[in-house]
């Protein structure tokens, strides 16, 4: 099996969506002074690789802590817009930019989550129908297209959370002879 990290590193001053809080990562304690090391983090809930809860764009919709953990992992597949059929019952990821042209197909399939370079309009529409979204992913092109893999993208347990940074990981099973 191969474990593929799809997460951006969180770094001091990293780029953020215009208007979002700046990311600050500072050393608060050092080995020399405190006998341990500790960092202070300051960032928005949609920093780097992150998951969006429906409440991110829809008042009164489900927050992260209201969604079952099963919504943040599962069998998944990378699909292309032009693929004639997308699988049902899997998380779906796009290694290309996608927009509202995909909404009807996604709404019919009701995947537990969708990820990739999603337009704001598509993200808003998916969250409106209860499909969580993952953005800020890196390395989707390293995943096999048309082959299932396990995806894990657990959020922090933020009470009332509209989103959270995640450590997004794909686990791809190795096939015999490869």
From TrEMBL:
It comes from the Bacteria. InterPro entries: KFase/CYL (IPR007325), KFase_sf (IPR037175). Pfam families: Cyclase. One of its GO terms (molecular function) is arylformamidase activity. Gene3D superfamilies: Putative cyclase (3.50.30.50). GO terms for biological process: L-tryptophan catabolic process to kynurenine. This is Cyclase family protein. It comes from Paenibacillus oceani. The lineage of its organism: Bacteria, Bacillati, Bacillota, Bacilli, Bacillales.
